[in-house]
C-alpha cells in the first residue's frame, strides 16, 4: 500500500490544536554569512552546536562560489559562542553526529559531513565520516570513510550493533527513500553495506521525498527517527517539514511519518531563495526535564531555529525507551585551583583515599595499576597526563570486560569543577542506576573534603 502524500501529512498536522511555537536562534561571529542546518553534540562537560556556515551566493553547482563550512559553537549561559580552537570543516555541508562504541569500549564521536565531487555533472554528493574522542580532536583532513552518491546517512549505536540509515535515490527508491542496514561496528560500515540496505519503498507517496536526520534507540528493537518529508525539485518551490516515525531494522518495518513542525511554526526570516522559504530541516532533539524535547533545525537554508515539542503520543519516543549512551553528568565544585585538583586526582595511588566506592587499595604491578574492591582485583588505566584536565580511566575486570569512565576537572576561576559521566549499562534498572549515581556523588564529595582539608594526603 502506498503511503500518504506530503500535502496529506502536513494537512493532518495543521488540524492539531496544540501546534508549538518556535523561535529563531543566532550564533555570533559569522558576519554576513548564512548559518543553518545545526547538529547538537553533548559531551560530559559541554554542549556543542555544529552549524553549516556559507556565503549567501554559495551555489552547489558552481564550484567557484560554493564555500560551505561547518563551525562549532559552545553553549554558555549567554547563548552559543564560537570556540577559537575548535576544528573547522571546509567544503562541508549539513553536519550530523552520533556517539559510537570505540576500541576498548571507549565512547567515540562520529561526525559526518557532506561534500561535493565537482568532477561530475551535476556535482556528486559524498558523505564523509570522521571519528575522535571529542569535538576538539576531530581532524577534518582524516575521514575514515567516504560514501559517494548519497546524503542523509545516519548512524545509531545500540547494545551490540550499529544501525545505518541511508537515503537512496533512483530505481525503486524513486526521488528519495529511507534505507536501513545493521552491522557490528561503525568501523565495518562500507559503501557496499549502504548500497545493499533494505529500502522502505512505500512509506510515503511517490511524489514525496523522505530523509533521516537523527536516530534514537527506543529499546525492544525499535528505532525512533527524527526526519523530514519534502516536496518539489530544484528550480521549483520546495517544501520541507520535520517529522517523527519509527522503524524496526530487524523486521524491516516502519511507521508512517507524523509531522511535528512546519516553517510557519517559527517567526519570519529571509530564506536563501524564495522557492525554499517553506523549509524546516531538523537537526537534533534534546530531552528536557518535563519530558518534552527541544528540536534544533535549519530554516530556509538561511537561519537557525528551535522549538519545544511533545512528540506524537501514539508513537514510541525517546522518553519511553532506553537511549544508548544514556548518562548523568555528576559534579562537585572544589575550592582549589585546577592544577592542584588534577595533580591529586590523576594519581591512581590516591584513589583509596577519596574513591572507596571504586577501590579499597591499589598498587603498581609490572607497570600496571592493580586495584582491589568488592568486585575483586581489576586493572586501572588512566588517560595520559594532559593539559586539558581529562581524567578518563578504564576499569578492566578479571573477566576481561572493560568499562570506560569519562571524567575531567574544569577550571572555574581560581576554583575547579570535577565532572564524572555515569553511563547506564545494558540491563541496569532505574533503581540500580540511581544507586550507582549516589556512589559516584559520595566519592566526589570525599574528593572535595580531602582537597579542601588543611592537609592533603599524597601517596
From TrEMBL:
Q: What is the organism of origin for this protein? A: Dactylosporangium fulvum
Instruction: Name the domain of life this protein comes from.
Output: Bacteria
SUPFAM superfamilies documented for this protein: Arabinanase/levansucrase/invertase (SSF75005), Bet v1-like (SSF55961)
Which Pfam families does the record cross-reference, listed alphabetically?
DUF1861
**Alphabetized InterPro entries for the sequence:** Glyco_hydro_beta-prop_sf, MPT-1-like_LmxM, START-like_dom_sf
The protein's name is DUF1861 family protein
Amino acid at each position: 500500500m502506498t503511503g500518504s502524500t506530503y500535502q496529506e501529512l502536513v494537512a493532518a498536522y495543521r488540524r492539531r490544536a496544540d501546534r508549538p511555537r518556535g523561535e529563531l536562534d543566532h550564533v555570533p561571529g559569522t558576519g554576513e554569512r548564512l548559518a543553518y542546518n545545526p547538529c547538537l553534540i553533548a559531551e560530559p562537560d559541554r554542549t556543542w552546536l555544529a552549524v553549516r556556515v556559507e556565503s549567501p551566493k554559495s551555489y552547489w553547482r558552481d564550484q567557484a562560489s560554493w564555500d560551505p563550512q561547518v563551525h562549532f559553537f559552545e553553549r554558555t549561559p549567554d547563548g552559543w559562542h564560537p570556540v577559537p580552537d575548535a576544528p573547522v570543516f571546509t567544503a562541508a555541508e549539513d553536519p550530523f553526529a552520533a556517539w559510537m562504541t570505540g576500541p576498548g569500549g571507549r565512547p567515540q564521536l562520529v561526525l559526518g559531513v557532506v561534500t561535493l565531487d565537482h568532477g561530475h555533472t551535476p556535482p556528486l554528493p559524498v558523505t564523509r565520516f570522521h571519528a575522535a574522542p571529542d569535538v576538539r580532536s576531530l581532524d577534518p583532513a582524516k575521514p575514515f570513510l567516504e560514501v559517494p552518491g548519497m546524503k542523509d546517512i545516519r548512524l545509531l549505536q545500540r547494545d551490540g550493533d550499529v544501525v545505518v540509515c541511508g537515503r537512496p535515490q533512483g530505481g525503486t527508491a524513486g526521488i528519495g527513500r529511507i534505507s536501513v542496514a545493521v552491522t557490528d561496528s561503525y568501523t565495518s560500515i562500507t559503501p557496499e553495506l549502504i548500497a545493499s540496505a533494505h529500502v522502505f519503498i512505500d512509506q510515503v507517496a511517490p511524489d514525496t521525498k523522505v530523509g533521516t536526520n537523527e536516530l534514537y534507540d527506543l529499546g525492544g528493537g525499535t528505532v525512533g527517527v527524527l526526519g523530514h518529508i519534502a516536496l518539489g525539485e530544484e528550480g521549483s518551490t520546495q517544501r520541507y517539514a520535520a517529522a517523527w516515525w519509527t522503524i524496526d531494522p530487524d523486521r524491516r518495518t516502519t511507521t508512517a511519518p507524523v509531522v511535528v513542525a512546519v516553517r510557519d511554526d517559527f517567526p519570519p526570516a529571509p530564506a536563501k531563495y524564495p522557492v525554499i522559504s517553506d523549509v524546516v530541516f531538523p537537526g537534533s532533539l534534546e530531552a528536557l526535564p518535563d519530558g518534552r524535547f527541544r528540536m534544533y533545525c535549519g530554516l530556509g537554508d538561511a537561519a537557525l531555529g528551535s522549538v519545544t515539542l511533545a512528540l506524537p503520543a501514539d508513537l514510541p519516543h525517546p522518553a519511553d525507551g532506553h537511549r544508548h549512551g544514556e548518562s548523568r553528568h555528576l559534579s562537585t565544585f572544589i575550592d582549589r585551583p585546577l592544577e592542584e585538583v588534577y595533580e591529586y586526582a590523576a594519581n591512581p595511588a590516591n584513589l583509596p583515599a577519596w574513591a572507596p566506592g571504586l577501590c579499597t587499595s591499589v598498587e603498581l604491578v609490572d607497570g600496571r595499576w592493580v586495584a582491589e574492591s568488592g568486585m575483586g582485583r581489576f586493572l586501572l588505566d588512566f588517560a595520559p597526563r594532559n593539559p586539558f584536565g581529562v581524567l578518563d580511566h578504564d576499569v578492566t575486570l578479571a573477566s576481561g570486560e572493560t568499562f570506560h569512565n569519562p571524567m575531567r576537572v574544569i577550571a572555574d576561576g581560581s576554583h575547579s569543577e570535577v565532572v564524572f559521566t555515569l553511563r547506564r549499562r545494558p540491563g541496569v534498572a532505574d533503581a540500580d542506576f540511581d544507586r550507582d549515581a549516589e556512589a559516584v556523588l559520595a566519592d566526589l564529595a570525599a574528593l572535595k573534603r580531602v582537597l579542601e582539608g588543611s592537609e592533603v594526603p599524597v601517596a
